[in-house]
Each structure stands twice: as structure tokens, then as C-alpha cells.
Amino acid sequence: MASEQTIKGQVVEGNVFIYPRDERMTIADLQRFIGKNKELAKEYEHNLEMYKGDHDILRTQPRMFGPDNRLVANLPHYIVDTYNGFFTGVPPKITLDDKTDNQILQSWNDENSFQDKLSEISKQTDIYGRSLAFVYQDEESETRIAFTSPATAFMVYDDTVSRQPYAFVRYWKNTNGIQVGVVYYADGVVSFEGSNFTDEQPNVFKMVPAVEFYGNEERQGVFDNVKTLIDELDRVLSQKANQVEYFDNAYLKVLGVNLDQDGDGKPDADLIGNQMIYSPDADAANADVEFISKPDGDNMQEHIIDRLVSMIYQISMVANLNDEAFAGNSSGVALQYKLLPMRNMAANKERKFTQALRKLYQIVFSAGAVLPDSQKDAWRDLDFDFKRNLPEDLSNDASIAQQLQGLVSHETLLKILPFVDDPKAELKRIKDEKIDNMQDAMKYGPSALDMNKPGDTDDEETTDE
Fold it and tell me: Is 426 helix (H, G, I), strand (E, B) or coil?
């Protein structure tokens, strides 16, 4: 009982790890957290296996008799890729108002392949329910970011109401099979090996250099609620394939007909491999030659398959874009209603991601390696513009932008156009283009002064003389 009283860490709803803010984590509490995360990792790995098509039906006991098909309906892969493409297929626009700072920000994003990493973080969130991004400095003291799955890393939050980051933990096995890892605190980075802390290094960011991304407070993946339905769909499809294969060969019964013409006591027809049932002893007056009918449960099987597929998409709230209902009704309003559940889920995920991204950039700017120290609070001014990846009607977007002329700023108008990636850069190009046109008009226009027109005036004066 005494050892239980010394436990200070706890796991709350959503499998969130909590620790007292004003105390340093003991090695015992750290190992308990790691042990709990290893339990969660089994579910994370199971989700990843389902995403990759390695479903439970492939590991069921083999049948003793008859066909034994193992069919996998890999809807988790479709659901994750469709939803992730809908959410980050069009990379979000991350900008700063200050032109110089914004240019530095865009260069840093490009150097770190940030949009690609953000897409992978989003995909991990859809598979596992959460993903982790951490900031570090490389050998050249350049600020970089990386991401990791929750199977080998986790966040610990403090026990305050606001649940601020307390520590970030990464762990792995070294070449000797000993568990090692690193605990990142705001005031230092502590390494551990086995059941001992080893050394501590300073933390240049002065805050926990990691952020947890998730789409909902429960930390559920996009197909977590339909895993049992997917397993049942695999089972029904496999059973149907077994029955189709079992009844694939139609048997011909020949009753009351003598096929032994040469008198050798054997039928002249080759019964082996031809699925024939032969009996000459039946009543010849009632001779019967016909195929044996097969039992037909196809309608029932198709009904449950359709029901399972429909429920999987409905409960996961990800639209089945291959559904005939989508192809049969292409009006904009109808499509918006069909996509409404997915848009609602994505809107909630966007709010969570916006908070996480703002926190991530706060860490990035804190070291002064991306923006100068005087601009380390620029993360407060970041603008995040997420756009859903849907078929675009460019003429409609252009018409809306035209109708809003004079009502909103030019930057807002440019955000409406899907082919404008950076409205601020586009405004600068428009301004530069206008300046170039004005300069050309001054040089080549009818009212241009002779001194501004191109030509060698000195040669003309020399010739006149």
C-alpha cells in the first residue's frame, strides 16, 4: 500500500497522462507511464495493421473442410485517405502580416517540407487518434521539426485546469535490448537508460518542445467506431466467397438411363472430374437427366453486405465518393448536404489543429533561429487558412470574388481563388506589375518626354552637326 501512495502520475479520459506541475517525474512514475503507453501501442499497431490491410480474418483458425477464402475489405485505408485528402489535400495557408517575416516563414516551411509533414501528422491522427510533432536543433543549430507516432512517444500534461504541457517522452530499445529514451522538460532534457536517469542537457527552447495533434478530445481515430463492422464485413465476404466456390460446380444427375453400351459394367461417360451423379438402377420409366439446383442465399448475403457498407460510411462520417447517389445528383447543394457530416468533423479537427500549430510555431520562434528575438511573439499573429479539398468551380469562385469587389479587402478576395497559394505574395506581384506598366507608359507612351524615350540621343545630335 505504501508504494501505491507514492504514485503521482495518473491517466485520465482519452488516455491523457497527468503529473503534478511543481514536481519532477520519478523514474518509477516514468516507467509506469511507459508501461501504460505500451498497452495503448497494441491498439495503435492494430489500427495500423487494419489500415494496411492486415485484418483479423487473416489470422482466424483455418476451416477443416471446404473452401477457406480470407477476403479483406480494406475500407480503413479508403476512409483514412479520403478524409485526410479532404482535410489536407489542399495545404493550409500559414501566413504572417509582416511581409519580411512572412517571407522568412514561407522559406522555413519549404526547407522543412512542413506541408508534407503536416499531411502525415494528419494521417497519423486519423489512424491512431493522435500524433506528435517535436522541434529540435540540428548540428548547425538550425531549427527543425519531426513527427512520431504515439506508439513510442507521448505527452505528459500538468495537473492544472488548463492542462499545460509538462513533459514529452520518447523511448526505444538500444542495441543491447535495454530501454532508453529522453524526457523533454521546459527547463532541461533528461536521458534515461533502464531504471536510471543518466545525464541532463539544457533546453534551448525554454518550453516543452513538442505538441500533440488530435482531431477530438477522446483521441479516437477516424475508423475506431466501425472496426467491428469492418471485421463482420470481412467475414461475410469471405463466407460468400466460400459458398460461391463450394457450389461453383453444378452436378448433372443421370437416373434411370443405362450408359453402359459396351457391357463392361461401367458407364461409357467419364464421370471423373465432370461432376456427374449416375444411377442406372432407377425406374427407367421415370428417367431423370438434369442439373441439381444449388441453394441460393445470395439476396440475403447481398443485403447484409450493403447494410454493413452503408453503416460503416455513415458511422465513420466519411462520404463514399463512389456511391451511385453521388454520381446521380451533382447539384452543388445536394453534394454539400452529402458532405455535411465530413465537413462538420473536419471543422472540429481544424480547430484542434489550429491550436496545436500555433503552439508549435511558438516553440519554433522561441529559439530565435527562424525569426529574430524581437519577433519571437509573432506566433500570435499567424493566420491559418484551411481549405477543403473538393472539386472546384473556378467560374463560380471568380464570380463571387467579382461580386465582393469593394466590400472586402483584396487579400480576402484572393483567398477565395483556389489557385492562389499565397495572397500576400500575389498582392505584391500585382503591385510590381502595376509599377512596371507605369514605367513602360512613361517610356513608350505618346505623352512620354523625349528624355524618357529609348534611343541614343547623343548619336542623333552628332549626326545633325
Answer: helix
